[in-house]
Amino acid sequence: MEYEFVHDAITGAAKAKFSYGHEVIGPWLEVEIGDNTEKMTDLLTAIANIDSGKNNEIMITGREYSVTFSHDDVIVQNNSSINGEAQEMPAELAEDFDDYEQSCSSSCGIDDFRQLLLSWAKFTNALQ
């Protein structure tokens, strides 16, 4: 998983750009986490609870995206894909948008995700 953090040239807002297959993580970071210290702490605590065996799975639901932690991986997905609200792609467009479903969900290893969060926190000054 490759990513880059940048500041919007006009607004100065933190932006996250991710490699193919992990694109949904960028808007999740921007919309759900931003520079919110409390949310960042909650996520890192969830990872610690999974690592310690206190929990087998933890799901944190946000306004637009949710993240699910397990021993093996972390899944970030758009809430509409969880709730079955995603609109089905018309057949005539399906060929051009084979990757539509992948843009709604992404997964990675829990250690990689922890490093991502720490990098984002440093970039946004969410943990000081």
Task: Output the keywords.
38% helix; single chain; alpha+beta; two-stranded antiparallel ribbon; 5 helices; 128 residues
Sheet with most strands: 4 strands, antiparallel
Distance between the termini: 26 Å
Q: Strand portion, in percent?
A: 25-35%
Shape: globular
Total helices: the number is 5
What is the string of SSEs from the N terminus onward? EEHHEEEHHEH
Helix and strand content put the structural class at alpha+beta
Quick recap of the structure?
With 128 residues, this protein is of the alpha+beta class.
Fold and architecture overview:
By secondary structure, the chain is an alpha+beta fold. Helix content is 38%, strand content 25%. The protein is built from five helices and six strands, in the order ββααβββααβα. The strands form two sheets. A four-stranded antiparallel beta sheet has the order 3-4-5-6. It has a two-stranded antiparallel sheet with strand order 1-2. A hairpin with a 6-residue loop joins β1 (3-7) and β2. The model is unreliable at 97-102 (pLDDT under 50).
Topology record:
Blueprint: E1 3-7, E2 14-18, H1 25-33, H2 37-52, E3 57-61, E4 65-70, E5 73-78, H3 79-82, H4 91-94, E6 105-109, H5 110-124
Antiparallel strand pairs: 1-2, 3-4, 4-5, 5-6
